[in-house]
Design a protein that fits this description.
It is found in: Cell membrane. By secondary structure, the chain is mainly alpha-helical. About 80% of the residues lie in helices and about 0% in strands. It has a single domain, classed as Growth Hormone, Chain: A (Up-down Bundle), CATH 1.20.1250.
């Protein structure tokens, strides 16, 4: 399958046949997640240099995520007739520009503006990449393909955020964003060479009663997705603050995030081997482990060893979440793949932005020790939606 092939003659294949395109999407996803989450690792340093509190600096994650939540569906609809590959390349160009602005910004307001540019890019990127990943392969391989693409997101946590955090700690957070801008520009070229063009999706031709049923299932997947991400980022946005409060030196945050992120690949692997066989049971198991890990984190805090052990359990489980919900949403067939990707992207970022804001409010109002319990309750609520909505999360892949 040639990367330069005409979208009109392109056909989906096996995971092996689509390897070039999947690799391109995986690398792009890696940098997209690194761009989104880099402030998490350098939050204390950014706040100190820009003269704002840690909870205010956390709004850099909130602003970014809410841009995605608000714009993902409208931008996807407005651009639905444009070539998919060209649009994906445009998002990578916007990531590059946004990171340059942040690296050079003299004030917190300009940093926020640079993050907003990245937020617009993110609103389209994940909507496109989820649909793209599902189109590169036959339906029988959707779960595996999306798990591989999502491995880029896991790698963003495993390598991107920890290494950029370590770089930011050593030579300054501005340098970290500058290096990320260069990497985004290089990835734009790589994607242009490796990713095949795909046709624009045709409108859903399902009859009206069937379409309503499918949309109802898609809505349940979207609600569960939002709740789980809300719980996750209520805690993860402030993971550097938690680690420092548990006694970790600032220089150790990057390496610890590297180890914890590496454990997330275990969850990504688990999703890859189960999503095309028993998707419902695997997702319920993953969410259950997340809840246990977050509750254990709250009970262990501020004990250093307990915090690390609980974070390892929680982080490993979260590695399976993104591909699990993406695959469940695609399989509902409740809309075109692009619109489904937009909905998954929007609801995840409602959770990310809301979690950053909620975590900041809990931190300011009740103290850091309550943040993990709040996150656990929200993930549990998402798990209950999965448990009750059997038709939206069937045991046999649809």
């Amino acid at each position: 399958m040639s990367a330069s092939g005409d979208a009109k003659t392109w056909r989906p294949g096996t995971v092996r046949e689509a390897a070039g395109g999947i690799v391109a999407l995986t690398i792009a996803t890696f940098l997209a997640v690194t761009t989104e989450m880099l402030p998490v690792g350098v939050l204390p340093a950014m706040g100190a240099e820009l003269g704002v509190t840690e909870s205010i600096a956390g709004l850099l994650v909130t602003v970014y995520a809410f841009m995605v939540a608000v714009l993902a569906v409208p931008l996807t609809l407005w651009t639905r007739r444009l070539p998919r590959k060209g649009l994906l390349l445009a998002t990578l160009a916007a990531y590059t520009a946004g990171n340059v602005v942040v690296a050079l910004a003299p004030t917190f307001a300009v940093v926020a503006a640079g993050r907003a540019i990245g937020g617009v890019a993110h609103a389209l990127f994940f909507s496109l990449s989820i649909a793209y990943g599902s189109r590169l392969v036959h339906a029988d391989f959707t779960g595996r393909a999306l798990a591989l693409v999502t491995a880029g997101a896991s790698a963003g946590f495993v390598l991107g955020v920890p290494l950029s955090t370590s770089l930011g700690t050593a030579v300054g957070w501005r340098v970290a964003f500058g290096v990320l801008a260069v990497a985004c520009a290089g990835t734009l070229v790589l994607v242009a060479l490796l990713l095949p063009a795909v046709p624009v999706a045709a409108p859903d031709g399902a009859d009206h009663p069937e379409r309503r049923v499918r949309r109802g299932r898609l809505a349940m997947v979207s609600v569960a997705n939002a709740l789980v991400y809300l719980g996750q980022y209520t805690v993860y946005t402030y993971i550097a603050v938690i680690l420092l409060a548990a006694g970790l030196a600032a220089s150790g945050v990057g390496p610890i995030l590297l180890v914890l992120g590496g454990l997330g690949l275990v969850g990504t692997w688990f999703a890859g081997v189960t999503l095309d066989r028993r998707p419902r049971a695997s997702l319920l198991l993953v969410l259950g482990v997340m809840v246990v890990g977050l509750v254990a984190l709250g009970l262990a805090f501020p004990g250093f060893t307990g915090v690390l052990a609980a974070s390892a359990l929680w982080g490993a489980a979260f590695g399976a979440v993104a591909s699990s919900f993406q695959t469940a949403a695609i399989r509902t067939r409740g809309a075109t793949p692009d619109l489904i990707g937009a909905l998954v992207n929007a609801t995840a970022n409602i959770g990310i932005g809301g979690g950053a804001a909620l975590g900041g409010a809990v931190l300011a109002g009740f103290g850091l020790g309550w943040v993990p319990f709040c996150g656990a309750a929200l993930v549990l609520a998402g798990a209950l939606v999965v448990l009750l909505a059997r038709r939206a999360f069937p045991e046999i892949p649809g």
